Amino acid sequence: MSLRNQVLIWIAFFVVLILILWLFRGILLPFVVGAALAYLLNPLVNHLQKLHLGRGWATALVLFCFVAIILGLFFMLVPLVVQQVGGLIQRLPGYTADLQSLARRWAPELNEWLGPERAAQLEATITDMLGRLVGIVGVITGEVVASSMTLISAIGFIIFTPVVTFYLLLDWEGMERGLQGLLPRQYKDEINGILRDIDSSMAGVIRGQGGVVLILAAFYATSLTLAGLNFGLAIGLIGGLFSFVPFVGFALGFVLSMGIAIVQFWPNWWMVVLIFSIYMVGQFIEGNILYPKLVGSSININPVWLMFALLAFGALFGFVGLLLAVPLAAIGGVLVRFAVAKYKASSLYRGPDGDAGGDASAV
């Protein structure tokens, strides 16, 4: 089979896959979450198997412990988080008005320091930014309410997700053997190399970046709550959980925290500096400790493409698309890098004589 035909077949395969996902997007959530959990928990099941525990018992034990932890956190945190998020949404317009009032109170000093024109521009910019922030929060809230699951779908999600996870974990080894049996023998080693790269990238996405998100959410929520910031738990969780979108989680949490801190603690600037320091410490921990240790270079996706993938898949598939965007972007990155490597090794790039020296010398 020619290279052209192979490329066309793979393109057709991915087009059909995207079409199937779009057609069944309404029922995909339990299967997507179940597959992600199975991938996440499979190393623990494998470890228990090495301790001479059967696959079925190991799967049941790991899944039972995981569900117990999730239920415990749910009953402890969810009522408080829901209460704080609701209070934050109701109070946000009031905080915006208070910030505008403080800005008008500081107007004489700003006029003296910056000049009338620049001070007016700064006040207009702050007002516009706060208005946009309130609008964004309102849109997000509306989308969540509009896309919220009905009681039947919520019950279906709660029931089907553990079942999907259990059977995927139980038959994980069989699925791997079945996949290996379907690989064309001529390209088996090459495809396995791609699959290893995809596994490394997926580990960075699901295990590594997932760990970073959870740790940041816990750090911001705990730190802001201990600092006494109003709605600190909700803001910390929002900023931490949205940190899988580059810059968005930090910007959202930082703007909300600083705005509320200025209104709540003014004129005690030390408390405002404390809230500011919490976010600076969080960014230092994320950039210098968590991300290099837990994720490393396994994802290797440009943040611009990552944001594009989130917006595109979110528009196509809704909430399920947001869950699929980063893993599919990571897989796409692996495939693109492989395609570029094949292109550079081909006669199309190196020339009919297989000599790339001219290109190298030009560089």
TrEMBL record:
Any single GO BP term: transmembrane transport
One cellular component term from this protein's GO annotations in UniProt: plasma membrane
One Pfam family linked to the record: AI-2E_transport
Keyword terms: Cell membrane, Membrane, Transmembrane, Transmembrane helix, Transport
Segments passing through the bilayer: 7-24, 30-48, 60-82, 151-170, 210-229, 235-256, 268-285, 305-336
Localization terms from the record: Cell membrane
Source taxon at top rank: Bacteria
InterPro entries named among the record's database cross-references: AI-2E-like (IPR002549)
Bilayer topology term: Multi-pass membrane protein
Protein family (similarity comment): Belongs to the autoinducer-2 exporter (AI-2E) (TC 2.A.86) family.
Name under which the protein is recorded: Permease
